Amino acid sequence: MGATSQSLSSEPLARDECLRLLREANVARVLLSVGALPAALPARIQLVGTDHLVISSRENAVLVAARRGDVISVQIDGLDPDDRTWSVTVTGIAASAPSNAFESEPLKRPMDPRATLIVLPLSVVIGRREH
């Protein structure tokens, strides 16, 4: 134990800042349980309004979780221009998106046409940035 370790401190991000970061994100990790084990699977995301995310995924585990109404989390992270890391996690009850869900409010970015769309309400939004 000769080396000393520096502890990183972090600060919570306000919900508005978390939403800004989510709005800019294209790719995320979907965090869920697969066979009682934790899994992190890639997916495309898009924030719609201020109350839910749309997840585009071809992963069977994500689709099954949405059909069952499982609680899942979506996590994004990145670097600020000054090299400070940040992370945002959204947790909610997943649901399959109805086929006509985005006729009145079209998605701003194209999603994978071979993927299934899943809706995740922004029930819990937590963000942190390192100091």
Which characteristics define this entry?
131 residues; 15% helix; mainly beta; single chain; Pnp Oxidase, Chain A; 9-stranded antiparallel β-sheet
Describe the model:
- With 131 residues, this protein is mainly beta.
- The protein has one domain: Pnp Oxidase, Chain A, CATH 2.30.110.10.
- It is 15% helix and 47% strand.
- The chain has two helices and nine strands, in the order βαβββαβββββ.
- Strands 1-9-6-5-2-3-4-8-7 form a nine-stranded antiparallel beta sheet, covered by helices on one side.
- Strand 2 (27-34) and strand 3 (37-48) form a beta hairpin.
- The chain is globular, with a radius of gyration of 16 Å.
- 23% of the residues are buried.
- Residues 1-5 have low confidence and may be disordered.
Instruction: Predict the CATH topology.
Output: Pnp Oxidase, Chain A
Q: Give a quick account of the main beta sheet: strands, pairing sense, barrel closure.
A: 9 strands, antiparallel
Give the overall shape. globular
Which regions contain 5 or more consecutive residues with pLDDT less than 50? 1-5
Query: Helix/strand-derived class?
Result: mainly beta
Proportion of residues in extended strands: over 45%
Instruction: Determine and state the CATH class.
Output: Mainly Beta
- Count of discrete domains: 1
CATH superfamily: Electron Transport, Fmn-binding Protein, Chain A
Helix content: 10-25%
Secondary structure: number of strands: 9
Order of strands in the sheet with the most strands? 1-9-6-5-2-3-4-8-7
Overall average pLDDT: 89
- CA-CA gap between termini: 25 Å
- Discrete helix count: 2
The radius of gyration over CA amounts to 16 Å
* The CATH architecture: Roll
